[in-house]
Write a structure and sequence with these properties.
Layout (H helix, E strand, L loop, with lengths): L11 H9 L2 E6 L3 E5 L11 H13 L6 E10 L9 E10 L3 E10 L2 E12 L23 H5 L5 H8 L3 E5 L15 E8 L7 H12 L5 H6 L10 E4 L1 E6 L9 E11 L2 E10 L4 E12 L11
Helix pairs in contact: 2-5
Length: about 300
């Protein structure tokens, strides 16, 4: 028996917008309280990008529009259940002349599933530089979509990844969905955009960007060791997620997500990413550590 219906398995983009349209409960203690539904997921666990983006929306609701997010750091504490609503409590930690800080806790059944702190800033002038986007990459129109790889596979996860996600994702280096990887390189590049147009609200695009940033970043760890999502016995789970917004971009235009893994040890791997617009503007930087466990016997043999 569910406490609230999950949303949007028939219309992925509508599902995303519904999930991000939080309800203000009107409750006020020392914190602001909001609630939101979850999107359907084939394994019944809340997608990490969803609860991150909802936590950001909740925090932004407590601020004037002239203060926008520039950084967030979140920890995934427990798996979320897609069949239950999520409650978000926002602590207004600090409001200064230029910066504001908010802490959002996401709860189910009274237990925290995510803890996030974010900083917001009024627009300001200052120094300006950025790293360059990689050149000569295959353009998204020339790459296969996920449904081209997964659409014919009769499995709920494959079908969801092929047809149920609100973003079109295309791997420059080829995906790591199944089989054994041959490259053993700790980096990859991925194009993505929403599957349809989104409203013009800039804060919605910022929230949707953190949502999409959680999709593929740990794949650079798998690729380095010749592993895939389909490797028998593999276990992968996000532990934390950090993101810095540098410049605004719409997520319904193609964005390039360049990812790499500098280290893996102790059952954990670190992945870093940079997100660029198609014309080379650096939009955001991302870092995530994940639990990655795979039986040694299941790892692919070394290639020469």
């Amino acid at each position: 028996m569910t406490d609230t219906p999950t949303v949007g398995d028939a219309d992925p983009l509508a599902s995303l917008l519904t999930a991000l349209d939080l309800t203000d409960t009107g409750a006020r203690t020392s914190e602001d309280i909001y609630t939101g539904p979850s999107q359907w997921m084939p394994l019944g666990r809340v997608f990490g990008g969803q609860v991150l983006s909802q936590s950001l929306v909740a925090a932004q609701r407590t601020l004037d529009d002239d203060r926008t997010v520039h950084s967030m750091h979140g920890y995934f504490l427990r798996p979320g259940d897609v069949h239950k609503p999520i409650t978000f409590s926002v602590d207004r930690i600090h409001d200064g002349r230029s910066f504001s800080t908010r802490r959002t806790q996401a709860y189910q059944d009274g237990r925290p599933i995510l803890s996030m702190i974010a900083s917001f800033q009024r627009e300001d002038e200052g120094l300006d530089h950025q790293t360059e986007m990689p050149a000569d990459l295959t353009q998204p129109e020339d790459l296969p979509a996920e449904k081209d790889f997964l659409g014919s596979i009769d499995h709920p996860v494959a079908q969801y990844w092929a047809n149920g996600r609100p973003f079109d994702i295309r791997h420059v280096n080829g995906p790591v969905y199944f089989g054994h990887g041959a490259e053993r390189t700790a980096h990859q590049a991925v194009w993505f955009r929403s599957i349809g147009a989104l409203p013009d609200d800039p804060n919605l695009h910022r929230a949707a960007l953190v949502y999409a940033s959680d999709y593929s970043i740990l794949e650079s760890i798998l690729r380095r060791h010749g592993l895939t999502w389909g490797t028998p016995g593999i276990k992968v789970a996000s532990l934390d997620h950090a993101m810095w917004w540098h410049r605004f971009a719409r997520v319904d235009d193609w964005l390039l997500y360049v990812q790499e893994s500098p280290s893996a040890t102790g059952g954990r791997g670190l992945a870093q990413g940079r997100i660029f617009t198609r014309d080379g503007i650096l939009v955001a930087s991302v870092a995530q550590e994940g639990m990655v466990r795979a039986p040694r016997a299941e790892e692919a043999p070394q290639t020469t």
